[in-house]
Amino acid sequence: MQTYRIETTVSKDGAISIKGLPFAKGEKVEILMRSRKREKDKKLERYSLRGLPVTYTKPFDSISENDWAVLE
């Protein structure tokens, strides 16, 4: 399977034109499209808490050994 990747912009009439493809005339191809804007949104989802303030509730209180989730 040969993969060909190109980045283009949708025209005002909603069409995409791709010329000079490296495939033979009449060859069947599969076309997948994805928005670049959506890819940026995924990056924001991955770090959704970035930039938000962090609040520690009683950070210096002691904790019993049974409450440590790390030891489980």
How does this model look, in words?
This protein is mostly helical. The chain has one domain (1-51). 15% of the residues lie in helices and 0% in strands. The longest helix is centred in the middle third of the chain and has 11 residues, at 36-46. The chain is elongated, with a radius of gyration of 25 Å.
Task: Please summarize what this structure is.
The protein is mostly helical and 72 residues long. It is built from 1 helix and no strands. The longest helix has 11 residues.
Number of helices: 1
The N- and C-terminal alpha carbons lie at a distance of 48 Å
Quaternary state reads: single chain
Derived from helix and strand composition plus strand pairing, the structural class reads mainly alpha
Task: Supply the key terms.
1 helix; mainly alpha; 72 residues
Give the topology, please.
Blueprint (H helix, E strand, L loop, with lengths): L35 H11 L26
